[in-house]
Design brief:
Blueprint: E1 24-28, H1 30-37, H2 44-51, E2 54-58, E3 67-72, H3 75-88, H4 93-108, H5 113-120, E4 135-137, E5 157-158
Antiparallel strand pairs: 1-3, 1-4, 2-3, 4-5
Length: about 160
Amino acid sequence: MDMGTRTVTEQPWWTLPENFVAPMVVHMEADQEELIFGHNDTYLPCIEMNSRTLIQLESWFTATGQTRVTVVGPRRARQWLLHMFCCVGSQDPCRHARGLEMLERVRSQPLTNNDLVASISVPLYTGDLSVSPRISGTICFSFRQPSPYRVIGYSEFHL
């Protein structure tokens, strides 16, 4: 498989059990959800298809009106989406602009291996605390042994 220039041609990702072991779960404000997924979740299907993930949105989940976003799929795709969510929610103009570029990319075309690798090489947390009120949650990524890994904190993820 060469995802650098074309889409996946191997076994479909949803047939691999490791892609479902530890879903990524974040909470985001309703306005950020609408920015990313569109009014009435218009862009949800294309984001799922182009990132090769399944995304569940539960807007009723918290008392503060946040939306619970659960993502299953390949680990690198989940990491890429998390990075995009964080950048889109940033008040830093450069990070926010990067997030909007990433959002346009995942809405318009399948992510390539180059996209996924480039995202992972950029640190997720760069000291931008402006995102903290907009996105939080428990983030778990699966590894070979089903051992959840929490990015920051004891059980909560706060940027």
